[in-house]
What we know:
This protein is an alpha/beta fold. The chain contains 12 helices and 8 strands.
Amino acid sequence: MKTQWHVQLLLIINLCFGGLCIAYSAQDSENPSAVRKDTPPLSKTITRKAGAVFEAQRAFEILKKQCEFGPRPPGSPAHRETRNYLFTELKKYANSVALQPHQYTANGVTLQLNNIIAEFGTPIGETLLLAAHWDTRPIADHDPEPENRDKPILGANDGASGVAVLLEIARILKHKPPPRRIIIVLFDGEDYGRSIDDMFIGSRFFAQNLGKWKPDYGILLDMIGDKDLSIPIERYSWNANPEFAKLIWSRAAALGLAPFQQRVGAAIMDDHVPLIKVGIPMVNIIDFTYPYWHTLEDTVDKCSPKSLEVVATLVISIIYDGL
Ligand SMILES: [Zn+2]
């Protein structure tokens, strides 16, 4: 009965999309848990078809590995160690990997930053960008304890989760090359400043220096490891390219990925905005209802392999089947 009910709900959602209706259903937004509690078992169909299975536990180990370096704000030894680790890992899987170095001065401090860019697949046809940020915030400015607010966060969810999914996907891309060009870019300096003037540094630099990596469209992953995963359509993504966002969330519904909510949520400034500004359709897949955001409690125990798998299932479907 649960399955039938779920199928009916998906039909309603799909019909809704088909009719260009974005009211989705007041019912869903009033009672989103009604959708989320009935999550069906994740289908492995897509990953099997791809010839390589996304290993959620393996992705979770990558999340933990980043956290073992400690907080990873620009300028710290852990930041350098993490950069070397990520570069070395991507080298195992990609056609090519490059650092995109840039400097940025904030409050008299000059930062040495690096985006890490890996290329996969064939140069023919469209290019899909997959992105996450690999730095972590130097200040826990939302921590409930005032004495913690100048300390750096660990960033298990805010940073490490998106990178973990993309590194595990990189392994799959090596196992079975995709039918399009995939660029994975790990942005630096996303979470640096106290104000947004000194944030999204790496993505702004990338957007102004696309060069040979210029994508046709892209997906940003940020804060997707939360155990209690809830991902509405991010509003900047929706406002800029509603048809593109609709296609992606429709795919999530078709895959039975209930944490993807079929409604438009908050507008969240993030690394996708600089790319949208230069004309690249981007969606931000983000769970912004994470109670440990920018606190010292953003730790591994708040995250789950299952959440990484939910998001990876959608991304892998788009990589291999297109939109
Ligand atoms: Zn953050």
